[in-house]
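Reverse transcriptase zinc-binding domain-containing protein
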Amino acid sequence: MRLIWLLFFRPDSVWVSWFKEVILKGSVSNFWTTKPSQKFSWLANKLLKLGKEAYPLIHVRVQNGESARFWSDNWSPFGSLQEYLEGGRSRLGIPKAATLASFFRNGRQWESSLHQMISLPPPPSTTRSLTLLGWQATIYWIWQERNQRLHVNQFRSFGCLFSLIDHQIRNKIQSFRETNTRRSSAMMQLWFR
């Protein structure tokens, strides 16, 4: 455990520099995701296996977020988000190596999201309509969850939120059936894709 501690808190050590470059491919954050291998030494494999025991003891300071990995580092009160969200990485589309800073480039996350929405094709597009529905439902349920957590101290799981958003979008698509069956069908097919 002492060597793991050195790895995170003594970056100027020669051994740490070697371990970081050779075993962890240049980033200490890879410690949580690197698997033991036959080409590594016995000691390196032993340290990698101890990672699960050391994980709760090492909390990452977010600071500017450039070195804090969203999925693997212990920065959240929920621990490893990859394990907490159970496969959420593939559904959310957040890359495995994403850092916290990648979400907030110069504090303009909402601005870039709005520009992305504006750049969608004109209104008749099924893709545009479905994307706008998705954004609307996501923002609504995230805001609801925020208020529940702050004011009522109730928490829903990621799976529950995902299910609520999914049902809201499906219901909205179904509501188009009366007026435009073709559009409703196209949107539902696109949603299931």
